[in-house]
Amino acid sequence: MSATWNEIQRVVFPQDADPDVISLYVDADVWAKVGDREVRVSDRAHLDDVLARDRYRISAGDRVSFASYFNAFPASYWQQWTNVAQVRLSVETSGVGNLLVYRSTAQGVPQRVVSEPFSGTVRHEIELPVVTFGDGGWYWFDVVAGDAEVIVADGRWETDAPEVRAGGASIGTTTFNKPDYCVRTLEALAGDETVRDVIDRIYIVDQGDQRVVDEPGYDAVAERLGDTLTMIEQPNLGGSGGFARSMAETVEAGASDFLILLDDDVTVEPESIARAVRFARRTTRPVVVGGHMFDLLNRPVLHAFAETVDLKPFVWHAQPRDETPHDFRFSNLRQTRWMHTRMDADYNGWWFCLIPTEVIRSIGLSLPAFIKWDDAEYCLRARDAGYPTVTLPGMALWHVSWLDKDDSIDWQAYFHARNRIVAGLLHSPFTNGGLLPRDSERWDLKHLLAMQYYPVTLRHRALRDILSGPAHMQRGMSTILGELRAAAADFPEKTVLRHESEIPMTVEGKRVYPVPSTSAGPQGPRGIPLVAFTAQMTLRQWFTKPAPKNVAEPQVELSKRDGTWYRMPHFDSALVSTADGSGKVRYTRDPRTFRRLLRESRRLHRELRKRWPELARQYRAALPEITSPEQWAPHFTTKK
Length: 640
Prior knowledge:
- The protein has 16 helices and 26 strands.
- By secondary structure, it is of the alpha+beta class.
- Strands 11, 12, 13, 14, 15, 16, 17, 20, 21 and 22 form a ten-stranded mixed beta sheet that branches. Strands 1, 4, 5, 6, 7, 8, 9 and 10 form an eight-stranded antiparallel beta sheet that branches.
- It is globular, with a radius of gyration of 27 Å.
């Protein structure tokens, strides 16, 4: 009896005419080894050669590799997590040339496994085992054109493995005043038939006052999607509140086996949606399947290959830490050896994440965190219940980067602090939270040395709320953002100076500030020098008063990159650029505030350490209730 082969991954090409993304789909460059690294000798990838979504032209005499992020096959992930034991490459070539199939080892060493000459129009169907990729490795193919051009078309990776579960997916997107992004995402989903085949429902949870339904283009795409699309309006409950609503709606509807969470400020590669569902249908047990994030404003740059949580200090890390972000313009899949090792994740960001509805029924909805740590906590909770997380290469979108944001020193400082510690109370295996309380106190000191009193004030509010018990997380969810923002009015450092007339002048009406020098290096002091520096600067901040002239006018002007915790303590005041470059912020040293907040930091963290076992029991016992649909429901129905 012949096997039935089903598509699990299409060979696709860019939908738009952006030359920056071509390297994510094909590697047509010529590379040479120089020393210990590969360098690009010439670039033969051209958008003109993309003839259609599934057709690519190779010029006479050229060789093109499809060892690319979106078109190579990540065999190690399929071997590790699914029932797939073999795949078939099915692709059509027209012209005269040679089709070469390669695999890689976990160390990134390429090995040619098939060579098929062709002439005329040929459908290649090459069966390949998926049994020796335990630690890593990919499959891909190259095409070498003869004395005339070759057309590559209708490429597919297929499997004969049956589906373990056959349901479709709902999509849940939370948005706050980004209606244009939402409409573009809906248009991308509506325009791809393969995606339409695996999607049951699309939920847009609109929490803003710039309504998606009022955006130009919405009516047309809503008509195309018909009953598949559901618009929901609710108060701003943050990302966790919007995604919790999508979870609740999907479970209640009972139509889908999976829910795919998508951020609003993204551009999605629609093929990734189909890949997520096809992978999840064949996993040997239910798993959370996450997608990668590329930078929307620098599109060949990958944020991370896997996300992990270091449990002792309880901090998240992008992996591999020394290799990401990664720019595919300068090193593609064949040249990036670390990318061939399978990397296991602790969690995946909710910019793009598939969650089986079985998992939602089992462990509940999102933590009522508003923003920050909701995705990491959920995946750790799922793992504790037996549902691991897989970040699948070839499944990705483009997301607005947070690298140009000041979120650790604005109102989000509250959520950074609170939700990290709550997640630690819920999941840390270490006595008294391991290194988490000490690290949290260290962050307070860094902010204080940098004259950043507002974020420390919010962090202390977070600690007081945590110490009050888990019930606080469901209280005031729709009002807390306003309260945190209103508190900024008490801190001059939160006033952004955007116009020249607002920026202080010094000598004879000119801005003349000394340029600081430092030997601390780009990461600041380490080891014994760090201890000495911290003691010296803490004593300076505690006991000395700023010079009156430095209170009247900024003592120094610094770029955002230079306005660090280890440079700022040298000065009484500073003018520092905002992260987005749109203005400047003035910081002024205040010894009285420094002493008050440092004392409070010591007191709160001492109480946190003392009460950690008790608090951990309380939060863990309350988790099923505060993440239940019943607890979330009143927030969903509150009027804006």
